[in-house]
Amino acid sequence: MKLRRRALLQIFAGLLVLSVGAVWLVVAWMHNPRRGLPCSIKLQSWNLNNWQSFGGTWIVKNGVIRNDSDERGAKIVTGSPYWRNYSVEADIQLLGSEGDAGLIIRSSDEQTGVDAYKGYYAGLRGRESQMNTDESLILGKADYQYTEMQYVRLPSGVAPFRWYHLKVLVYGCHIVASVTSALHPDRTYTASAFDAGCYKKGRIGLRSYASGGVWKNIRISPATEADMKRMLAVRAPFSLPHAGRESLRPLMTAAPPAPDLTSVSQLRLMTPGSMRTATVRGVVIATMPQLYVEDATGGAAVHAANHVPLKIGDEVQVSGVVSPGAFSPTLRDASVRVLWASTPNPPVFVTSSQAATGSFAANFIELSGVLEAKSLGRDHSLILRLRNGQQAFQALLYGEQAASLYENLKSGSLLAVRGVCVVTPDYTHNLTPFALLLRSGGDLVILAGPPWWSPRHLIELTAVVFLLLLLIQYVHSRMEQWRLRAVLDERGRLAHEMHDTLAQSFAGIGFQLEALRDELPDQGAARTHLNIARDLVRYSHEEARRNIASLRPENLAALGLVEALKRFAESKLSGGNIQVIATGNEAAVALPPALADTLLRIGQEAIANSIRHAHPSVIAIRLDLVGKTVTLSIHDDGAGFDSSAGGTGFGLDGMRKRAEMISAQLTIESALTRGTTITVQASLPPTLTWKTIHLHAWNYLKKLALHGTPHAS
Prior knowledge:
Jelly Rolls; CATH 2.40.50.140; 32 strands; disordered C terminus; HATPase_C_sf
């Protein structure tokens, strides 16, 4: 037993060491500052699964990632928070003449908000009327407030819709940034800074401020001191005069006077089929899957005849043929002119009942709802079915973000969605009164996950509790078997001790009394007393042998219950003329140890009582197994007794108590001169299979309720 326990402890210690080692390796791999480097982000087959956005409308389209929002400080981050010395480079394009866009390095503790992160930022800044750092390469540090560390003005300026290659490197506490224009690939401008209290590690990110931006060819590589020195070797003058600049392509164009401007609300009042043209001025609120503009009176869909690069928030002038529509107008064959970049309109907060009336059709609105179902359309669109109170509606998202969001959304979650409200069957398919066209994944916010009491979670919880109860029952059963084995081992030890001491002492005393008796004359009181003492010692010796036999655990696994009882009876009848008949079919199934041991003790007591009191000529032992019921019967043809008299002895009481321990039924049938039959009937525990597992669990719970702790089988 000690060797077995020591082996188990050694195995446990080995498993513990292996587990600790595996955990250490995983943690070391996760904290490796070079894990995942170098890497290139291939945007053709890429989505935003591994990126986390903070504001903005980030989408992946045509091999680029873009943010069409003019939000101040919109950012999206990815990578390992344990990256230390590395560089990140990308091709960048500004979508406005003002604001800036660039790359974040060593980022951590990000939140939504202007400069709400810790890290370094390198970017390109357009025209800024209130600062002297306009049209420059800028380098700064953010700690929930922005500090400019260095800037370098570009002689050709920073033009919107022009590609620039930006690279930023961090090594130790040195930060270096460089930029090259697509117009002048042979000219590189560099800005650098040293931060004594620098951030040591962090992720990478993309950021724009008061302007949209486009990024492509993003690459992250480990950096060395030699890489840093090569970048610092390429320097341009710190500041160059403005006279040598190339002319910029202006985003703001002078719009001709438009005395015939019409509001969106007036378009709704026009006669259908009149083919009238009208001009409206408004702000772009959506570009996918259709262009929508909104003014102070409402929104309208636009089918543009000319292609103009637009972003959310642009102020535009649209002229086209009016289709009034039942709830919102549409401008067809429209020409679109960009007036200037503006701030995106905030959404209007409405209820689902208000939106269902059509009063907010083609308007940018926000509302919340519980996600009931989700699916992916044939055009790779994400279709969400939501419910707010009694009102159901849909939310639709087009683009490559749909697949990534589909995996992250769970039915039953509470979502806040904002988008353009549409009521046409082209989008609702007559399934709901209205639908929302989401512009990007940023228009969908998970307010709360699904409740834990959902049917699926309740089923999973029930299954876990059920398996836990089975595990507890199994452990309890094994502990009972170990306890029984320990009891049997202790009985064996006591039997050996009694055999080596008590029995041998009785044998020695008897031998000495026999020798003393032989030395005395045949007649006399002393010889008579010695005969009595000899008989007492012999009787005590027999009792000691019987008790030793009762304590010694027979090898039931090898002999079987019937053979063990037969050998017990024969050992009691050595030299006698009583016949022992034993039959049974216990080979059909193995009896549980506790059940077999209890039946053995009852059978031994019944055989001993028969030999001691009944003086039979035949003792019959029979064991029957029928289904899940085992029956042991001990029958003799001896003197018997009147069982109706109610008198019981110590042996019968012991058999009844043993039968109660295994929930068995004990029956005693006897009559004077007709012999005695003792029958024990017990049920086998159910076999643990997939078909009987529910019965096993039910019996366990029933025993637990009736007795507090079920007895192990």
